[in-house]
Design goal:
Elements (H helix, E strand, L loop, with lengths): L2 H7 L1 H5 L4 H8 L1 H14 L6 H10 L6 H12 L5 H25 L3 E2 L2 E2 L1 H5 L1 H21 L3 H24 L7 H26 L4 H25 L14 H4 L5 H9 L2 H12 L7 H12 L1 H19 L7 H15 L3
């Protein structure tokens, strides 16, 4: 069966399902108000463009999934003080900074349903405000009072940059293997999810095994999140989520759905991917043809199958912790990450 059809027909199944991200947001409401207040406070600058540009993206309606993981994990462990709030704000600043930089590199026209910030203020301003947010994130890490947490988040920031550079180097590379692609998204996406979860265990003073479990939860969740985004770029619920459709294809990015097709492509199809991805010589109808090839190979459904597998592993990683409402919310979040595709 064509994988695009399977994704679309599943919509009815999840349309009435409770939104796990909203449930977690409700549970973490008071903590996230503190995080948001701290974010707005630390955006303050006498250079007016900085808060103006940063707020444009931060207030654009993102779900704050990464910082919510930090505060939810801390609550699951019974740790309630200022440190997780500061670390959660730092996580959001790191994420927002990478988005600003990504939009410059990717030349994407849309972010969170709005025109990308670099198209409003220019590339230079976006890059420099991203740098400002990175600096603010490190100040917050220091204030959290844990050198170990500082080390984990700073290492994640470096890993994200390495992943982005690897992805940039791999643009138009139709020799990309599935293994290489998974290494790239582990760095550019999953690393921050992993760090966001792990730092709560650090400031809560939990044993190494629990730190490792939190890190595994975040990493597996991040991989699932990115793989769903890969599928969404070829349709599904992308427009509903404020995401541009077809950006990866137009930019010559080999994401997992295309990598899976390339493993099997021969003859006319191999020539198509060489022209449209390696050479980025695209014309009207090429995106629709790409969708047809993805359907032929079941690449979108295979991508979502892998996302489901990582989401399941994320849930399993939390089994070491006592059952409570916070653990349940984090487990349900793993399901929500996959349900976004429908």
């Amino acid at each position: 069966m064509d994988s695009t059809v399977r994704v679309d027909t599943a919509a009815a199944r999840v349309a009435s399902a409770p939104n796990a991200a909203e449930r977690l947001a409700s549970l973490a409401y008071n903590d996230m108000r503190r995080v948001d207040a701290l974010i707005l406070e630390r955006l303050d600058s006498h250079v007016e463009l900085i808060p103006e540009l940063a707020r444009y993206l931060i207030e654009a309606g993102g779900k704050r999934v990464r910082p919510m993981i930090t505060v939810a994990a801390a609550n699951m462990l019974g740790h309630r003080d200022a440190a997780p709030i500061r670390l959660a704000a730092a996580v959001e600043f790191i994420h927002t900074a990478t988005l600003l930089h990504d939009d410059v590199v990717d030349e994407s026209g849309m972010r969170r349903g709005k025109i990308a910030a670099n198209l409003v203020w220019g590339n230079a301003s976006s890059v420099l405000v991203g740098d400002f947010l990175f600096a603010r994130s490190f100040s917050l890490m220091v204030e959290a009072g844990s050198m170990k947490a500082l080390g984990v988040l700073s290492a994640a920031a470096s890993t994200i940059a390495e992943g982005e550079v690897r992805q940039l180097s791999a643009v138009k590379d139709i020799g990309m293997t599935v293994e290489t692609y998974m290494q790239i998204i582990d760095a550019k996406t999953a690393a921050l999810f992993a760090a966001a979860a792990r730092v709560s265990g650090i400031v809560a003073g939990r044993p190494a095994a629990e730190e490792a479990a939190l890190e595994a939860y975040g990493r597996e969740l991040g991989l699932a999140f990115q793989l769903v985004d890969d599928a969404l770029d070829y349709g599904g619920a992308a427009a509903k989520l404020g995401k541009s459709v077809g950006d990866d294809f137009r930019e010559g990015k080999v994401t997992l759905p295309v990598a899976l097709c390339l493993q099997e492509a021969q003859g006319e199809e191999a020539s198509f991917w060489r022209r449209t991805i390696a050479e980025t010589r695209q014309s009207d109808g090429d995106f629709e043809q790409a969708l047809a090839y993805l359907g032929r190979h079941g690449a979108l459904e295979a991508t979502l199958d892998q996302a489901r597998s990582h989401a399941r592993r994320a849930r399993e990683a939390l089994a070491v912790f006592p059952a409570n409402e916070w653990r349940t919310a984090l487990e349900d979040l793993a399901d929500f990450v996959v349900d976004r595709a429908y």
